[in-house]
Amino acid sequence: MNIEQAVLEKLRQLPVDKQQELLDFVEFLYQKMMVKSPLRSVRGLCADLKVDITEADIAEARKEMWGNFPREIV
Length: 74
Description:
It is elongated, with a radius of gyration of 26 Å. The chain is built from four helices and no strands. The termini are far apart. Helix content is 61%, strand content 0%. The chain is an all-alpha fold. It has helices spanning 3-13, 16-33, 42-45, 55-66.
């Protein structure tokens, strides 16, 4: 008996809720095994939107957001 046959035999003996639990676990193992695509930068994600964000734009947005934030906590 090979592994697949042994797993199927045990699977058939389980109640439906445990079969679902086993399926969830198998899907978890499968996802863990899959090669994940590298993360893309925000600039890369927005490339097809034809948005041109410069370093100056980012610096200005940071200044607007954090300009009034207290520098030191007393």
